[in-house]
Amino acid sequence: MDIFDIHNVKSEKNNTILQYQRFKRIAKLFRLVELLSAVVLLSWISTRLPFVIKLSGEYFRQLLSVIVSPLFIFLIDVFITFSSTFV
């Protein structure tokens, strides 16, 4: 009876070791897929980066010209003045 128990324990140990090795292989595969997707994403971003920088620079330049305009400063002054009178 003890021999069968030892055999069962050994077979369970072997199955567990095989399952652990399979899990390690799957984890390694996921790491590889993650690395490849990061490389693809960086490649995709690097081709579009100059256009994005140009576009955002133009946007901020126009935004700054609106913020510095006398009309905008006047509207902010009026808003601050009226909001402080109602407090």
Automatic annotation (TrEMBL):
Q: Which domain of life is it from?
A: Eukaryota
Entry's transmembrane regions: 29-47, 59-82
Q: What is this protein called?
A: Uncharacterized protein
Q: Which UniProt keywords apply?
A: Membrane, Transmembrane, Transmembrane helix
Please give the organism.
Helianthus annuus
Checking PANTHER family in the record gives: DUF4408 DOMAIN-CONTAINING PROTEIN, TRANSMEMBRANE PROTEIN
